[in-house]
Design goal:
This protein has 109 residues and is mainly alpha-helical. The protein contains six helices and two strands; from the N terminus they run ααββαααα. A two-stranded antiparallel ribbon has the order 1-2.
């Protein structure tokens, strides 16, 4: 049974360059608030935003930073993390401040 992605793959060669550009613009607009390296999966970390391929929630990293841990401390404490992971986490925090504040407050109770 063909999937939507398969259908797109079949249609792509039929599109003009202009139509392909328009398609890319739609995709970019749809992903505009995307935060690479961050995932949310029901059943993993309570569905909270987390670093991909880990169970390390973004709010945990932000709370640790607020408590005075440096990026070097975080990387040492979580050996699977990379500097890029932290950059992605900080971007997510900036874009989703209310969500992160709520998660920190809920987990301090």
């Amino acid at each position: 049974m063909p999937t939507p992605l398969h259908d797109i793959q079949e249609l792509l060669p039929q599109l003009s360059k202009g139509e392909k550009v328009q398609l890319l613009q739609w995709i970019a607009r749809d992903l505009g608030d995307d935060t690479p390296g961050i995932d949310r999966t029901p059943g993993i970390c309570g569905g909270e935003a987390r670093i991909v391929r880990t169970r390390i929630s973004v709010w945990t990293l932000e709370q640790a930073r607020r408590l005075g841990l440096s990026e070097a401390d975080l990387l040492a404490s979580f050996p699977t993390l990379t500097a890029e992971d932290l950059t992605n986490a900080w971007r997510y925090v900036r874009l989703n401040t209310d969500e992160i504040e709520r998660a920190i407050a809920e987990n301090e109770e």
